Amino acid sequence: MVPKLFNALTKQKEAFKPLKEGVVTMYNCGLTVYDYASIGNLRAYTFVDVLRRYLEFKGFTVKQVVNFTDVGHIFGDVDVGEDRIEAAAEREKKDPWAIAEFYIEAFLDDWRKMNFEEPMVRPRATEHIKDMIELVQKLIDKGYAYVVNGSVYYDVTKFKDYGKLSGNTVEKLKLGAGGRVEFNPEKRNQFDFALWINDPKHVMNWKSPWCEKGYPGWHIECSAMSVKYLGETLDIHTGGVDNLFPHHENEIAQSEAATGKRFVNYWLHNEHLLVEGQRMGRSLGNIYKLSDVVARGHEPKALRYLLLSTHYRQQLNFTWDGLVAAKNAIDRLVNFVRRLLDADGKGSGEEIKHLIERVRRDFEDAMDDDLNIGPALAALFDFVRDVNKLLDDNLLSKEEAGEVHRLMSKFDEVLGVIGEVKKEEKLSKEAEELIAKREEARKAKDWMTADKIRAQLKTMGIIIEDTPEGVQWRFAK
RNA sequence: GCUGGGGUGGCCGAACGGUUCAGGCGGCGGCCUGCAGAGCCGCUAUAUGUGGGUUCAAUUCCCAUCCCCAGCUCCA
């Protein structure tokens, strides 16, 4: 079946069809690297990663681009905002380049720990200044942009489709801004936005055709880099809902004005994360990072599960209890796969075939419906329970267990939380002897000695479990 | 102030107006086990913010109201 995705442009679920059959071009708005990524940022990339993995599960090749915004940008109005990277530079007494480099490295580390797949390319804004300047020049040449005092602005009244994504048409914006006192007098229209900013004081600055020392506007990098790596029309563009306006609206205005073509076919936005039911914010002191999660003794995979287990267009309530629940849910899956390795039963014939058929269908049907992860996971856990019953009754043959194992791995290509589960083989001589001694003690019903040895092995990092098939051991994580 | 999204059991979260309202986690009990672990079964569970309305039937539709979140206004 063809997956359906909720397109912010049309505000409805649409059958997903890439421009080129079998290949998906996807641009994911990246991080502004002035600080560590928050778990809110990580939610956005968890969504992106599951989306990518699911498209691959469906057989698509995904060409993914995730940028780094390593030029400081002024959030809010150009004249009154604060450049976050330069502010961080001042705070940490480093130059902005070092700030960006540092947080890029930190983010790449998070990326790996979260088990996100590596994108095709990770372009940085500072490495594409030339592309941006060319794009700005094109917009000037086509009459969409104008130069004032060495800065360049985009004239929103020239782009007739302005507001088609967010609904913020120029008329509506004017209505909303009734009480606004100050606005940049350089602009022709109040809602024009900067493409290039003339500012000799800006630490990161470049020479351009319009001024000696300036830097690019906030939105132009994504337009320039996406077209460079993925072409003039993208299949998918993602970001947090906060990017919908003005960022993505302005990207559309720039890109479509420059190319005359549709910029993006499917706009996908993830909802935000709440922390204990509250907004995550600096003033509330509840901005958590991956390192905070790890410092409290949780594995990144638990966070990954927690973040992916709620539908991406739904606000997700992050709680520390939820993280524990997530870890335990993963354990259930891992224990299940581990059990499969030892299965050597009679065989269940039709029954397991039906269970496999059902879980495949239910999982895929759910995910095809705009990545509806809830019912997909429910189907998976139903399957686990039903197969566990077969295992309890020794009704699963080695071959059947192998097939189930492969299926679980297939699902995990999307979820990325189980990982490789295999039988551990190497045990020290000492441990082997202890296990043998314990078996002797058990045979003699000397439980005291048996329990003592079990405790001793545990301190060596070896978990002992007695099963009807005999003693099992594994390394503690 | 305007616009949009949301409030579901102890917690997290599903659900196209209609079979007992998924699933996970937690707690309790049982089976299995020497014990533990894993697993299975049952209970927790007469859960849909509140008050009205429409309907044979409402978590779902309508109105009002409270709370949370976001965007715009404003500010950070």
Task: Tell me about this structure.
There is one protein chain. By secondary structure, the protein is of the alpha/beta class. The chain folds into 3 domains: 4-270, HUPs (Rossmann fold, 3-Layer(aba) Sandwich); 290-415, Isoleucyl-tRNA Synthetase, Domain 1, CATH 1.10.730; 429-475. It has 15 helices and 15 strands. The protein has helices at residues 39-57, 84-92, 96-113, 129-141, 170-176, 220-230, 244-259, 290-295, 300-308, 320-342, 350-368, 373-392, 398-415, 429-443, 447-459, and strands spanning 4-7, 12-15, 23-32, 61-69, 145-148, 151-154, 193-198, 214-216, 234-240, 264-270, 273-275, 278-279, 316-318, 462-467, 470-475. The protein has a 4-stranded parallel sheet with strand order 4-3-9-10, sandwiched between helices. A 4-stranded antiparallel sheet has the order 5-6-7-8, covered by helices on one side. A hairpin with a 2-residue loop joins strand 5 (145-148) and strand 6 (151-154). Helix 6 (220-230) crosses helix 7 and helix 10 crosses helix 12. The longest helix has 23 residues, at 320-342. The radius of gyration is 27 Å and the shape is elongated. The chain starts with a strand and ends with a strand. The structure holds one RNA strand of 76 nucleotides.
